[in-house]
Amino acid sequence: MRDAEFFRRWLVAAASAVEREADRLTELDSPIGDADHGSNMLRGFTSVVRELAAERPEVPGAVLQLAGRTLISTVGGASGPLYGTLLRRTGKELGTAAEVSDDDLRKALYAGVGAVAQLGGAAPGDKTMLDALVPGVAALGTSYRAAAEAAEDGALATVPMQARKGRASYLGERSIGHQDPGATSSALLLAALADAADETADGTADGTTEEDA
Ligand code: ADP
Ligand code: MG
User: Fold this and answer.
1) Which residue has a Cα nearest atom 19 of ligand 1?
2) pLDDT tens-place string over residues 98-118
């Protein structure tokens, strides 16, 4: 079972990944966007970590809803409302339970990704974050690591696509040949989730040791 601390660890890991990769995300957003995806994500996730430390929400659903609200209020670009909606909707699905199962989380994320598709009107193949999120969440039934890998493959698969949503779509055929920045950050998010799950499995982060087991 996953408690609030697990979700906090996920988002802290996501914030570190965004910090590490911010320059690359902005570089990807240069040829097919306005070169702000790295700074948008960095501002958003830095605020998320700060808000989580200040408010210390006690249940998984509240952690994700606070994170989602924070992204919506601090990120000006398209990605803020979209990622904000992903986390808020996922958090809402988890409700007020103190602990949730991996299956609960899988279903909640599935609903969260559906909310992103509804808000942005995009589908897989449109060269957006959904090209990483949809295959990523579909692979959650296998494992968190499989989900991270499917999302990474999905991000790489955006290179030959022509953008049909968002700023990159204004470029038409000239958007072909570039990796989508949002799909790339979505892969980071799912890799951070797999890292948080690994930490728990190792017994390094939840206070248990092999001797306890
Ligand atoms: P902006 O495009 O406003 O500058 P960002 O640069 O932060 O915002 O984010 C761009 C990313 O947002 C794109 O790479 C794409 O993955 C994602 N995106 C844009 N529009 C949509 C949409 N309608 N649906 C899903 N994702 C979208
Ligand atoms: Mg941009």
Assistant:
1) 166
2) 999 999 999 999 999 999 999
Domains delineated in the chain: 4-198 (1.25.40.340)
Other CB atoms within 10 Å distance of the CB of residue 41: 32
Q: Which amino acid is at 119?
A: L
Among 92-101, 189-198, 201-210, the range scoring the smallest mean pLDDT is 201-210
Q: Which residue has the tokens 């038409």?
A: 172
pLDDT (tens digit per residue) in 159-185 = 999 999 999 999 999 999 999 999 999
Mutate to test the pocket of ligand 1, among 128, 158, 169 (most ligand atoms within 8 A of CB): 128
**Which has the closest alpha carbon to 145: 175, 187, 105?**
187
- In this structure, the number of other CB atoms found within 10 A of the CB of residue 211 comes to 6
Spatial distance between the Cα atoms of 108 and 124, rounded to a whole number of angstroms: 19
Rounded CA separation 66/72 (Å):
10
Q: Which of 91, 79, 81, 82 is nearest to 41 (CA)?
A: 79
Cα-to-centroid distance, 181 and ligand 1 (Å) = 8
Minimum CA distance residue for ligand 1 atom 27: 128
Contact between 164 and 127 under an 8 Å Cβ cutoff? The reply is yes
